[in-house]
Amino acid sequence: MKSWEQLREVQPLAGKIMMNSFLKNRVSHAYLIQGTRGTGKKTFATMIAMTIFCPNVNNVEPCQSCHTCKRILSGNHPDVHWIEPEGKSIKTEQIRALQHEFGYRGMESAKKVYIITNAEALTVNASNRILKFLEEPEVETTALLLTDNGQSIIPTIQSRCQILELKPLQQKAFINRLMADNDIAINESQSRLISALTNNISEARTLHEEEKVYEIKDVVYQLIYQLIANYEDRYLFMHQTYLPKIKDKQDQELGLDLMLLAFKDILNFRNQRVEQLLFFQSNDGLLNRAIEQFSEQRLLHILQAILEAKQKLNQNVHPTLVMEQLVLRF
């Protein structure tokens, strides 16, 4: 686990905000921690919880070695509650159970912390219950809501949280770190692709070793070829090839992430920003055909459509409907 000083090196603004908050004893009752995958949202949340509860805090640094810190790190502290989606959403019943639990005094202190991961998965009713909870906490409570997309959180919740924006890590440094990792055999092309999907070295290893990312990339590549060579059959391709191969939600999210990278590459290649390519190689013939097929205005329209599809998927719209609507907008 990193220290606050180490976190501040990779997330200067968010790290400074939290360190100052602890030093001045001005910790907010609620934080919305937002950032893309791999930016360290869970690490930030865990560090906040440890700093709140650790009996041996030195300046702002929790000791990370006491019984309290170890239980928080292992997810077993009785006054630190993690809420994660059950299936595709965070349901009203989960928030009701949390409220019931927080109606009691903390087991080991007067404090309680709850951490909601993938907060964009809150249903409308669950969001309304969280909103009431933020307004009227029963005990001394700190709420930490983690999300890839802060704009997907309802404005009334956003307005009651202090927002911590976690920035993506420097990509070049991460690529070099991946290629220097002796535990995985990964080339530069693969490193560039994976570095665009995560800044977490452990997650990067998993993505590479499971190889699913490369399988899904191939399907996305076929989709772009279809849009160029057989545009009228794109809807048929979606049902016969894309959807049968990309079934569960995690893979569907990865597919949309890879689509974003692919169309950003086409836009960058059109504007002669070859050094920014992540999905394609600069000598790929399909990339050259793509810049003839797609105008800059159309590419921007497609990128917006993919972002909206990602949001719908997180809102639990049926994946088949999401992809049908998306491919018809290409």
UniProtKB/TrEMBL annotation:
SUPFAM superfamilies associated with the record: P-loop containing nucleoside triphosphate hydrolases (SSF52540)
Gene Ontology terms for molecular function: 3'-5' exonuclease activity; DNA-directed DNA polymerase activity
Keywords: Nucleotidyltransferase, Transferase
Enzyme Commission number: 2.7.7.7
Biological process per Gene Ontology, one example term: DNA-templated DNA replication
First-level EC class: transferase
Listed InterPro entries: DNA_pol_HolB, DNA_Rep/Repair_Clamp_Loader, P-loop_NTPase
Keyword Transferase annotated: yes
Name recorded for this polypeptide: DNA polymerase III subunit delta
Provenance organism: Candidatus Pseudogracilibacillus intestinigallinarum
Lineage per the UniProt record: Bacteria, Bacillati, Bacillota, Bacilli, Bacillales
